[in-house]
Amino acid sequence: VTVAEVPLEKAHVECEVGEEEEASTAEVDADAHREADSLAIHEAAYAGQDIRKLQSLPGAKMVLYLDYSDFWVDVRTSDAVRRYNKQHFYDNWRVPSAGFSMFELNVVTDKAVYDRTPIRNRAKACFYNEDGRSYARPHSIGTNGCGSTNYVKRNGVILGKVTLHEAGHQFGLGHDGDTHNSYHKGDRRFRWTPIMGSHWPGEWWGSQALYQWSMGEYNGATNREDDLAKIGRYVQRRTDDIRAPRALVVGGNGRVSVAQNRGKITDRTDVDSFTFSTAGGRVDLTVTR
After folding, report:
1. First to last CA, the chain
2. Most exposed: 3, 9, 74, 147, by fewest CB within 10 Å?
């Protein structure tokens, strides 16, 4: 056996994030589009957009390119290959778009945008229309070639979570585990799981599931690195959009419109406040997450 030292960026992190659970997740398909709808606060619902020209933040200095070229030319007929439609590709794109929405990062499917971006400011995630275990090159931001290799999943939302996880490795993040698991499986009380842990428990939580960058804020954490801080070494945070309390826009029917009352949380100290007043008497509030 010959062992050779290689630069860290040439090492691969191969992920085993619960692949065996996919075959038994009968509830996943039923929840997939409900869960995708929960991301609409970050990206508009699919309405026939050209899936080869998608951009999450046009004009941003840093670009993450999702390269689906293997799907465009694929002629294989293996039963293991899953055929994606435009909705699947759109869902796959908007999950990492939401996951990186606090940063000045443009998640794109447009190769022309990637090509004209300087190498130091870009990264690529490659996709293959076949089954396999996804993996990534740590610290591969600002390099040529595929920083991560992502294999097809049951639907675009699930593949999007894998894409986001692998992109985390591209920024140098490690796995979030605990004393019993290499991949932390989240907290069912809050329906929360770290992006760099296992996303599979959240598949049963549907649209209420929370996937967040972590710094080991749970019992038994084996990795307490600050994900947001490490990503921030490569890409700038977005400007705070609500710096002072803002009056809540309430419709005539008493409903609060998400579209008219929204803010973006960019870091752990960011607080977006909305206020309202009443003439007195009883007020019934229904709060959903």
Report:
1. 54
2. 3
